[in-house]
Amino acid sequence: MQRWLATLLIATGLAVTASWSAASQAQTAQRCFAETGFCIAGRIRSFWEQNGGLPVFGFPVTDQHEELIEGKPFQVQWFERNRLELHSEHKAPYDVLLGRLGALRLEQQGRNWLGFASGAARPGCRYFSETRHTVCGDILTAWRKNGLEFDGRTGKSEAENLALFGLPLSEPQTETLSNGKPYTVQWFERARFELHPENKPPYAVLLGLLGNELRSAAPKPQPTATLAPYPAPQRPTPTIGSYPPPRGD
User: Fold this and answer.
1) What would you measure as the largest C-alpha separation in the chain, in angstroms?
2) Angle 25-76-74 from CA coordinates, rounded to 5°
3) Where does residue 67 rank: exposed (0-12), middle (13-18), buried (19+ CB within 10 A)?
4) Which residues contact 41 (CB under 8 A, 6 or more apart)?
5) Torsion angle, CA of 48/184/126/159, rounded to 10 degrees?
6) What is the pTM of this model?
7) Taking the CB of residue 28, how many other CB atoms lie within 10 A of it?
8) Could you tell me if 211 and 79 are in contact, meaning their C-beta atoms sit under 8 angstroms apart?
9) Treating both helix axes as pointing N-terminal to C-terminal, what angle do 101-108 and 210-217 enclose, rounded to 10 degrees?
10) Residue 241: pLDDT above 80?
11) Which member of 104, 133, 231, 239 has the greatest number of CB atoms within 10 A?
């Protein structure tokens, strides 16, 4: 009897421990950020952590939710610098795609990148004939340093660079950013590189907060107008003498 009771207690203890462990893992399956109050989990979390994390994507600024992308519904989550989209129709690593936020932000500003001045091939730079723009110097170094992880090899291939940032859409040009100060920037399909000489490396080249900019400049949904109830017609209060006297027959 004592041996049976001891066995029962051990089994119960193991079950409780397993249950606590599962609950603990469920609680830690998401990663939350006090800076914005939002969390990341599942495939979006693993993609965020494996492909650059905070410097590349920034903090999450929404929960994961459904949005229409090119007319189709997808699960997405917005970050300070980009938008991650879940595409279950593709196999990993292509099951998470990035929004073309550089192109979208220029479109939102009413600027056609096809009208930007073209570049030319020159030593020490990378010329892209697809868009006729050239990437050089610190921006080229930063572009080549980061990329989506596809092949499991050390370093980043150009295919991985392109998958993260896309092609250049402009030459380096001076623009006034949200802080009211002019900076040299270069636009890419999915990013805007900014030169910040006031910062020490590696923070002298930063990525623009395109996720924040697109969301803050998007037209706000208009509240649905509600019509005030039409007042019921008021019946006049009868007064003495308001009705004709009874007819005498």
Assistant:
1) 119
2) 115
3) middle
4) 29, 30, 31, 64
5) 10
6) 0.77
7) 9
8) yes
9) 40
10) no
11) 133
CA 113 – CA 117 distance, rounded (Å)? 9
- In the chain, which ranges are continuous DSSP H helix? 2-28, 42-50, 53-57, 101-108, 137-145, 158-165, 210-217
Do 58 and 83 contact (CB within 8 A), yes or no? no
- Which amino acid is located at 99 in the chain? G
Q: What is the pLDDT of residues 52-87, one digit of tens each?
A: 999 999 999 999 999 999 899 999 999 999 999 999
Domain ranges of the chain: 27-99, 100-218
For 104, residues 6+ apart whose C-beta sits below 8 A from its C-beta are 210, 214
Token match 């991985």: residue? 160
Mind listing the pLDDT tens digit for each residue in 5-30? 444 444 444 443 444 344 334 445 99
